[in-house]
Amino acid sequence: MTWYNMLWNQFTGLNALVVPGTLRDSLVLLALLLEQETELEPLEIMTDTAAYSDAMFALFWLLGYQFSPRLADIGGARLWRIDRKADYGEFNALATGSINVGLIRENWSDLIRFAGSLKLGHLKAAGVMRTLQVKDNPTTLARALSELGRIIKSLHVLRYVDDPVFRRRILTQLDRQELRQRLGRRIFLGERGEIRSSLRQGQEEELGALGLLLNVIVHWNAIYMQEVLTQLKAEGWTIEEADLARLSPLIWRHINFLGRYDFSLPEVVAKGAFGRSAILVPNGTFENPYVAFLSLSAVRAMTAAKVRLAMAAMGQKETKVADLCRELGITRQTLYRHVAPDGTPRKDGLKVVEGGKTRNPHGKKQ
To answer: Could you report the per-residue pLDDT of 111-164, keeping only the tens digit for each?
Structure first.
């Protein structure tokens, strides 16, 4: 499976999709963009080389977005020209392809309607292929879309080669995404970065929780980084804008991913005054051991008067067991060992009332 996620240039995750297998389809990017539910309106989409095609350049352009993929194989990129007879000088050897402008013109209204349906949500990104392809053959609309995309792609390639600032901006955003992925793997240390659920719903829930934690860490870091900057300025430090631009909330050295554990024993247990049967109630279930610690002295504190009072109280429906135990100074387990829930005395209760000998939880006579 592949986890596609979209990262804002302010380090917050906007949307994510779980894709079966290792599919690297540019249509997934379109779904991420159109189905994100935040109030933000992205203007430029940056991705790696494997997630673009000619049609994607056209679709993003028609939808009003700038599609800026990183071009790792730019040396083999093919440039396209509109006028076959035009002289592009040194670029004549590179602009070997020719755009079919007539095909774009004939299908222009359909291209606009197609983009409008995607923008308004009448057509989902998953249904794009059904519109653009019949069996293995592209439709006329798909061919017109590719022709338009080749124009946009050629302009992108030329700008990518000529503008170092543009290249750096793309690489910076992709580096942020890689850093977020590293933090995600760090958070996922319990399962060593593995998704154990075999169902897609379970996978989406696990990765959705991971995305939420990533955003929480970014938010927390951003708040405290701002507090630090405010304090430094108050102390007279000069903060350069160039330094601020290089700060990133995707840091985690200060985060304890393993938690803190306390293995110290409560005093009553350390002294050995904790009997196993002290936390066992008659139905065989265990109470919370932190509220059910019982010393042997508490067992011996059960008197005939307390047994009789407990018998009378337990026979009444309005009696609250917790209040009764508090009044008698005994635990719930001691109460149930001597008196049944309906108010009848148990064997140990009868022995106390009759003045007979009872046994403590360790089997020794008292």
So the answer is: 999 999 888 888 887 677 667 766 678 889 989 999 999 999 999 989 998 999
pLDDT of amino acid 285: 45
Q: Could you give the dihedral angle defined by the CA atoms of residues 165, 167, 170 and 171, in that order, rounded to the nearest 10 degrees?
A: -110
**Beta-carbon contacts of residue 192 (< 8 Å; ≥ 6 apart):** none
Q: How far is residue 30's CA from residue 62's CA, in Å, rounded to a whole number?
A: 12
| Final residue of a structural domain among 193, 213, 241 | 193
Each residue of 212-221: pLDDT tens digit?
A: 899 999 999 9
In Å, how far are 1, 5, 30, 31 from 125, measured between CA atoms?
A: 19, 16, 6, 5
Distance CA 161, CA 320 (A): 80
State which residues form the domain around 299. 267-353
State residue 21's pLDDT score: 57
How far apart, in whole angstroms, are the C-alpha atoms of residue 250 and residue 9? 12
Query: Token digits for 358?
Result: 């009872």
The secondary structure of residue 64, as a DSSP letter, is: T
Eight-class DSSP state of 213: H
Contact at 8 Å (CB) between 322 and 316? Answer: no
- Give strand pairing partners of 237: none
Please tell me whether residues 187 and 299 are part of one structural domain: no
Count structural domains, the chain: 2
